[in-house]
Amino acid sequence: MKLLSVNVGxxxxxxWKGLSATGIDKRxxxxxxxxxxxxxxxxxxxxLAGDRVYDVxxxxxxxxxxxxxxxxxxxxxxxxxxxxxxxxxxxENLTTVGLDVNGALIGERWRIGPDVVLEISCxxxxxxxxxxxxxxxxWMKRFLQAARPGAYLRVIEPGDISADDPxxxxxxxxxxxxxxxxxxxxxxxxxxxxxxxxADALPEEDKNLVRRRTTA
Length: 216
Description:
With 216 residues, this protein is of the alpha+beta class.
């Protein structure tokens, strides 16, 4: 289990959401990248130095500090889309190999390299920017059906990371709430929502959404 690449965004126009820019265009970088907790959502800050988000209402902050996606899942999408997909193309900061990212548990912790510890917080929910960036009509619907969303992580212990750093799972909580389960519950299968609240590490924003949807 390791990082294949560490990817940082290059700002580009965002006509798909009517925003001034988007940071979805992530590209692999050479050398170490500093990782630190970015603070609350709303400033555009994320966990990797040199990166940021521009839709500050929906992205960034403590619970979406780092986004990871598995190279194995990118390879599967290559076959379906019929085109090569480079590391970072889904907007992920970390392209991994050997890790079941979607099967990771909420609250699971990864040590990356000697210093950095990250914690799985929630699933990525697709938006219009993602569909526009891939230039694929119906992409959001297909992404929802596949339930391979990749994971957001929060920073527990800061430090530097680099491509080829090993990834070790150092903690797995005692529940069955995976990234894929959260994604399915939040998007297509609301009957699963009550199962999510046993995951203490789920962001408070998501817990509140679950409570609203299950008590309405």
